[in-house]
Design brief:
alpha/beta; 113 residues; 6-stranded parallel sheet; Rossmann fold
Length: 113
C-alpha cells in the first residue's frame, strides 16, 4: 500500500519507521513536510519527501495520514482538499472531529480517526 504522511514530525517518523521495520517498502511512503530540516531528518528513512502536497506527491497514494498538530489541521486539510480523490484519509490528531475534518476537506467522507 502506498501511504502519504502530511507532516514529517515525530509521529510520522515513528509510524513510517515502524511500517518499514514490518516490511513496508520505504519507496511506497511519501512525506509532505514544509520544513527542510524535518524533510531531511525523515528522509533518512529513505522515504520520498516533498515540500508541498501536490499531484506529484500524491501520485498512486492509497492512504493519507494527517500527522500535523491539531492547531495546524484546518490549514493542512484545506491545502489537501482539491487533491483528495479515492484515498482513505486518516487523522492521528487529538481533538479533531470527523465532521470538522470532512468540512475542511470540502465534504470528503473517506475518513478514519
Amino acid at each position: 500500500m502506498k501511504i502519504a504522511f502530511i507532516g514529517g514530525g515525530n509521529m510520522a517518523t515513528a509510524l513510517a519507521g515502524g511500517l518499514i521495520k514490518r516490511g513496508q517498502k520505504a519507496s511506497d511512503l511519501h512525506v509532505i513536510e514544509l520544513d527542510a530540516g524535518a524533510r531531511k531528518r525523515i528522509g533518512r528513512l529513505r522515504v520520498k519527501a516533498f515540500p508541498k502536497a501536490d499531484e506529484k506527491a500524491l501520485a498512486g497514494i492509497q492512504a493519507i495520514v494527517l500527522a500535523v498538530k491539531p492547531q495546524q489541521m484546518r490549514e493542512a486539510a484545506g491545502a489537501l482538499a482539491p487533491l483528495v480523490r479515492r484515498q482513505v484519509v486518516v487523522s492521528i490528531a487529538a481533538g479533531i472531529r470527523l465532521a470538522d475534518l470532512s468540512r475542511w476537506l470540502g465534504g470528503y467522507r473517506e475518513l478514519i480517526r
